[in-house]
Amino acid sequence: MKNTRTRSMILCALFTALTAIGAFIRIPVPVVPFTLQFLFTMLAGLVLGAKKGALSVGLYALLGLIGLPVFAEGGGIWYLLKPSFGYILGFVAASFVTGRMTETMKEFSFKRTLLANFTGLFIVYAAGMVWYYVICNFVINTPIALWPLFLYCFVLAVPGDICLCFLAAYIFKRLRPILCKTGVTENECC
Questions:
Q1: How far apart are alpha carbons 93 and 50 in whole angstroms?
Q2: pLDDT of 77-130, one tens digit each?
């Protein structure tokens, strides 16, 4: 029991660190910055399951809010007023939902894993866009209409994250036999 608890803490810390590192791995694309945070938050849910995946991503968010520079543009409580903070909140919820959807699979399915990742993608963008709209229009007084919001916060940003949904599903497919054999994952499909 103690060994399992220690392993869980180490894995949660690992995915917290990977998410922080992912914030600084930037893939140069025009207009919208593209990082690997989304990949690691999806993998946290897939590998660790709903609760531990959300815990690891939530810890990442907490570390950033207390001032550690783990976010793409630093850290600190002031980050709550950044229009992009909603995406970080979305990462936590998406990791939970993705983990919940895959840990209840009776047998592994690449399509269901991909569906879980796309559900997570929807959650991240929904939370991100709502937060962005509210902060811009009602807090920092830099109004943004719905169409520019949809264009800059979704249309231009989502193609890379769609690719990451496929990549996360593929990585999980490859890792799953090892994770099941070692007892790392709590998915029923082992």
A1: 9
A2: 999 999 999 999 999 999 999 999 998 888 889 999 999 999 999 999 999 999
Tens digit of pLDDT for each residue in 120-162?
999 999 999 999 999 999 999 999 999 999 998 999 889 999 9
Q: Would you tell me how many other CB atoms lie within 10 Å of the CB of residue 15?
A: 26
The tens digit of pLDDT for each residue in 52-80 reads 999 999 999 999 999 999 998 889 999 99
Closest by CA to 169, choosing from 124, 131, 116, is 116
Q: In whole angstroms, how far apart are CA 91 and each of 74, 88, 99, 150?
A: 17, 5, 12, 19
19 and 94 in contact (C-beta within 8 Å)?
no
Cα separations in angstroms, 17 against 134, 135, 170, 184: 29, 28, 21, 18
d(CA 144, CA 147): 8
